[in-house]
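Sample pair:
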Amino acid sequence: MNRFAFITLLVLLASLAGVQSHAFAEEVRPDIIWILAEDISNELACYGEPGLQTPSIDALAADGARYERAYCTGPACSISRSAMMSGVYQTRIDAHDHRRIGSYTFPAITQYLRDAGYYNAKGCGYSGKTDLNFKPAETLFDGNDWSSAKTGQPIFAQITLDGTHRQDANEKKWRAIRKRSSNPVALEDIRLPPYFPDTEEIRMDWAVYLDQIEHMDTQVGEIIARLKNEGRYENALIIFCGDNGRCHLRGKNWLYEPGLKVPLIIKWPGGKRAGEVVGGMVSMLDVTATVVDVAGAMPSERLDGNSLRAPFTRDLIFGARDAGGEIADHIRSVCDGRWKYIRNYVPSIGYTESKYTRTHRPMRKIMLKMKADGKLSAAQLLVLADTKPTEELYDLERDPHEIRNLASDDAHEQTKHRLAQQLDLWIELTGDTGLLEMKAGGKTR
């Protein structure tokens, strides 16, 4: 092993080592409320997104720490949630295919929290979605609301807000609400990524997405109000995040920034770290490790995350996408903060969407028509290409929208080689079950 590979191995081992939990310093262990909004990237007012208002989430961010670069491990709900609830990369435990239950039985973090004396509640008046691709070793939750906890018992509540989950029924619902609303997001106020054509129909599609976020914000306000009314807010650890990136083209299902990067706000007990903004990279696996750490739980398996109770950011972020629906695509990525390297193992199928996701992206039909009419720019044609490059390399500092692929640029060969080696080491160290499956010929779906 050469010197570079050895140093890289040490960095990866450090990032994968995880942490063992230590009892929270407070005498009274905090309640832990984990709110997951579906299918959103950082389109919130507190992240600088124009055209919408999110006062409840903004207030939570003012009371806590806001993470500008938080990443899920896979760009679809069951993949990401499997990692968050197990505390390890989904590719470690055969949980990498969207909504296919893998062969592993593995403890969920609720098992660790229950052993530490916590009451585990799901939904609490909202969605109780779990959506895991592995078999939990024990029952996940103790009930559907924290009101069933014993007096004085600390609670862990996982609450899903599904109003931002995009599907045909939701689109019809939200377009109808938009027509009746006295204050819909104004089309002229929104900001579109450059890989979307700027037409009224496209702006409307984006505006409906922002309208859904505004409604979700009111639900966050309701949860916060309940916590305050019950005297739980001050001493609670409250986490708000997305389960995966936004359900638009180049987002959900893909390893570009909008598919992996999610909002993350953590309100700490006692007002600690109020107003803090963290610019470095963190993984949602670090959020899992934080929950276990703050609860004073003792995991039986080593976690792939590091607790955020002490300031921590990552040098490398890894992402993985495998089969979803009838599409068996395999993609891996690594990001060092500035540079993103993506490897496509099945480039021949291009940017094929499954039947399931095609119905959730009204913009796609519009863009296909514009493509046929020759009305799309080179950047807008990228996501409709019939094939993908085998390798992609992006300078996120100069090209945050990942439009200019530098993988074949000789000037960046060393950067590409370094990231490719780091990705290979991660794949080896984690025993990537998704790639093992692909090499074995895949499973019948």
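Residues 19-26 have pLDDT under 50 and may be disordered.
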